[in-house]
Design a protein that fits this description.
Helix content is 31%, strand content 23%. It is α/β, with parallel strands linked by helices and 375 residues long.
Length: 375
């Protein structure tokens, strides 16, 4: 679903409404102008500065850094330092330090991918404060998928942002919604969980509060979770999808731009990109430990420090399973995501590869032993 759009010319922006802060201001290099990246387009960036929107090319410093490591390439949500060139247009001189980042493929250390990104490690969005994990209470005939919530919450922690789970389309699930929310809270310890119905306006205002202080959010979730509908509801009607923008090259050209950084009329911003929409397919790592903090805590009480929780004596994890304290589904989910995280790490870090192959052999053996042939 797309956003409704009225076109408007951007002439000026209060940068604090885009999330600019004194902390960031302190990091701005002398002689540069701050701007936030609204979209990346074929090796150039659409940025919003205090004097409006500009299409800027990358300067030598950015090109050099990103040829050594594509993660250094600007991405949506980045704060960047612009330099005014003698001919009167800006160039993107530096990407300012990121507070959070969604990175696909892990951080590459030795990539020669250059400007293409080369799939070697690509930043999908930066400086995202709030990560809404949208999971519909009902998805056609299925109930909310707790495993998917765990995966996306892990990704959210991994990014450095704060996850907030939204059980969307709550109107489809009138009876037993409280039970569902209770299950979700178990699946996402330490994470706020709310029911939302964008159609009925329920929970939308509450979700909006997370964006106060001009915070930036993304909404992760499966197709059909109601992400676009929620963005529109947060915007109190319709937000801009495309926009006529006066090109900054002084020729007065108008280009239609799909903005991926969407300022909401009531304050706050939402980043919405195809990459972020597909992110559930990408890697997870340390975030897994955080989303399964309950199991990690149990594991610390196992008799053996290297307990594999597969039948060792004094295993607190299996004890909790037996007593019903730990749902079996959750243990299975934890194992699955751990394997995936390890595999992803191995893909992106050649140094670890050999070691991981050995671990994989062990895992395969274990899986054969337990009669399962799929991770
Ligand atoms: N019953 C109900 N339906 C909703 C709600 N929110 C969205 N929908 C419907 O769910 C469908 C999918 O909503 P979208 O907002 O397009 O979902 P999306 O997550 O953006 O999906 P993609 O664009 O495929 O990623 C649409 O038909 C919406 O009208 C809700 O709160 N309640
Ligand atoms: Zn154990």
């Amino acid at each position: 679903m797309s956003f409704d759009l009225t076109s408007a010319d951007l002439t000026s922006f209060d940068l604090t409404l885009l999330g600019w802060s004194e902390l960031r201001a302190a990091e701005l290099p002398d002689g540069t102008v701050p701007a936030r990246v609204a979209r990346i387009d074929r090796g150039a960036a659409e940025v919003i500065a205090a004097d409006g929107q500009h299409h800027v090319k990358y300067g030598a410093r950015v090109r050099r850094a990103s040829s050594a490591d594509p993660v250094a390439l600007p991405c949506v949500g980045d704060w960047v330092a612009l330099k005014l060139l003698p001919e009167g247009r800006y160039e993107l001189d530096q990407v300012m330090p990121r507070t959070t980042a969604f990175i696909r493929g892990g951080v590459s250390r030795d990539s020669v991918g250059g400007l293409s990104g080369d799939g070697q490690g690509q930043v999908l969005a930066a400086n995202v404060d709030i990560v809404f994990v949208a999971e519909p209470s009902m998805h056609s005939t299925d109930f909310a998928d707790l495993g998917r919530i765990e995966r996306l919450v892990a990704l959210a922690w991994e990014s450095g942002g704060t996850p907030v789970v939204l059980i969307t389309k709550s109107d489809l699930f009138e009876q037993g919604l409280d039970d569902l929310l209770a299950d979700v809270r178990v699946a996402a310890p330490g994470v706020a969980v709310h029911a939302v119905s964008s159609l009925q306006g329920e929970g939308v205002e509450l979700a909006g509060h997370y964006l106060e202080g001009s915070r930036t959010a993304v909404i992760l979730g499966p197709s059909g979770a109601g992400k676009s509908t929620l963005v529109n509801a947060l915007a109190g009607g319709s937000v801009m999808e495309t926009q006529h923008v006066r090109a900054a090259d002084g020729r007065g050209r108008h280009t239609t731009v799909h903005r991926e950084l969407i300022p909401l009329p009531g304050g706050g911003l939402v980043i919405d990109t195809p990459g972020i929409r597909r992110i559930g397919l990408y890697d997870i790592g340390e975030g897994v430990d955080l989303v399964f903090s309950d199991i990690e805590a149990l594991a610390e009480r196992c008799r053996f420090g290297d307990c594999g929780h597969t039948g060792e004596p004094g295993c607190a994890v299996l004890d909790a399973l037996e007593s019903g304290e730990l749902p079996e589904r959750r243990l299975t989910s934890w194992r699955k995501l751990q394997r995936e995280a390890a595999w992803m790490a191995s893909r992106t870090d050649a140094r670890l590869r050999k070691e991981q192959q050995n671990k994989w052999k062990v895992i395969h053996k274990e899986m054969r032993r337990s009669g399962r042939n799929r991770p």
